[in-house]
Amino acid sequence: MSEAGASGSSGRRGVVLGGGGVTGIAWMTGMLAGLLEEGVDLSGADLVVGTSAGSAVGAQLTTGLDLPELLERQLAPVEPGAPYAVLGTRVLLGFGWAMLRSRGDLEGFGRRLGQWSVDRAAAGKLPSLEERYAAIRSRLPVQEWPAPGRLVVTAVDADTGELRTFDGSDDVPLVDAVAASCAVPGVYPPVPIGGRRYVDGGARSTANADLAASCAKVVALTPIPRAAGPMKSAQAQLGGKPSVIIAPDEGARAAIGKNVLDPAARPGSAREGLRQGRAAAAEVGGLWG
Fold first, then answer.
1. Separation CA 284–CA 244 (nearest Å)
2. What pLDDT does 230 receive?
3. Given Cys at both, which of 75, 110, 242, 259 links 161, Cβ 3.0 to 4.6 Å?
4. In a domain, 259, yes or no
5. Hey, which residues does 258 pair with through a beta bridge?
6. DSSP-assigned letters across all residues of 167-185
C-alpha cells in the first residue's frame, strides 16, 4: 500500500527504511534496485533513517555500495538447513505482556521489552554477542559511517526505554550501531554501547519516520507497516508531509511468509521487492524529482 502527498519543490529529501527482519532487508533491497532500474535513485537522499533491518540497508545505501550487486546477494540461493531465528509464540507473548503492562506508555513498553531481553540473554536463551556481530559484519561490506548526520540509526535503551540515535558524530562504530538497532528483544541479545544496553529501534516504532521531519519530502519503505499499542505508523508520524509510503503488497507478503527471520524466504522477498519497486517508480519519482 502507499500514500502520496503533494510534492515539495525544494529542500532536503529523506528516506525512511523500516524494520522487518532478513526478509525486510531483501524486500527493501529489491525495492531500491527496482526503483533504480526505472531511473529513481534514492541513494542521493540527504537523510536516511534506518530501524532494525532498515539500519543495515541504510548503511549499505549510504556507503556507496552497488545496488545491483547487493540485490544479487539477496537473490542467491539459501543453503538448505541454514540456521535461523523464529519470532515464535514465546516472543510474541513477551511483546504482548510488555504492551499490556505499559498501558500506552511507549518508553515503558521499550523498557519492559528491554529488561525481558536482558533477562533472556543472561539466562543463556539468546545467541551470543559474538555471533550477532559476525552476522552484522557480513551484511556490511563497508563498515565506516557516511558523512556525519546523513545516516541515522535507531535503538532503544533497554533500561529506560528511551530512543537513542546514532549518526556517526560520536565514537560509536557503525557495526555496533546496526547491531543495536537489529537486537530484536527476546530473539537477539541487547548490545552494550558506552556503558548502556540497547535493543531494536523497532521497540519504539517499526519506522521512526518522525526523525525525518526536517526533510521537505520523504520516501518510506516499511516492511512492517502496522502499528500496535502506543507505537505509531509511518503515516501517522509523517502527518501531512509530502511523502510516499510503501509496504509489501499481496504478492510480497506471500513471499515474505510468517517468519520474517527465515533466510529461505529471502530470495523470493527480494524478487517481489524488485517487481514492486519497478511498479512504484512513477509515484516515487513524481515526489523525488
1. 6
2. 87
3. 110
4. yes
5. none
6. -SSSS--HHHHHHHHT--T
**Residue 2 clears pLDDT 70, i.e. is over it:** no
Q: What are phi and psi of 163, to 5 degrees?
A: -70, 140
Q: Is residue 107 part of a domain?
A: no
Which one from 2, 52, 117, 205 is the annotated catalytic residue?
52
Cα 185 from Cα 166, distance rounded (Å): 19
Q: Which three cell numbers stand for residue 260?
A: 520474517
Q: Is residue 68 part of a domain?
A: yes
| Residue at 144: amino acid letter | E
71 domain-assigned: yes
Q: pLDDT tens-digit profile of 153-201? A: 999 999 999 999 999 999 999 999 999 999 999 999 999 999 999 999 9
Domain that holds residue 73: 13-85+123-288
Is 214 one of the annotated active-site residues of the chain? no
The domain total for the chain is 1
What are the distances in angstroms from CA 124 to CA 165, 190, 249? Answer: 28, 12, 38
Q: How confident is the model at residue 83 (pLDDT cuts 50, 70, 90)?
A: low
Q: Which of 157, 167, 176, 200 is catalytic?
A: 200
> Cell 529489491 maps to which residue?
30
Judge whether 200 counts as a catalytic residue: yes
Residue 224 CA to residue 226 CA, distance in Å, equals: 6
Spatial CA neighbour of 214 closest among 167, 161, 160:
167
How far CA 118 is from CA of 94, 123, 158, 231, in Å, comes to 13, 9, 8, 21
Length of the chain: 289
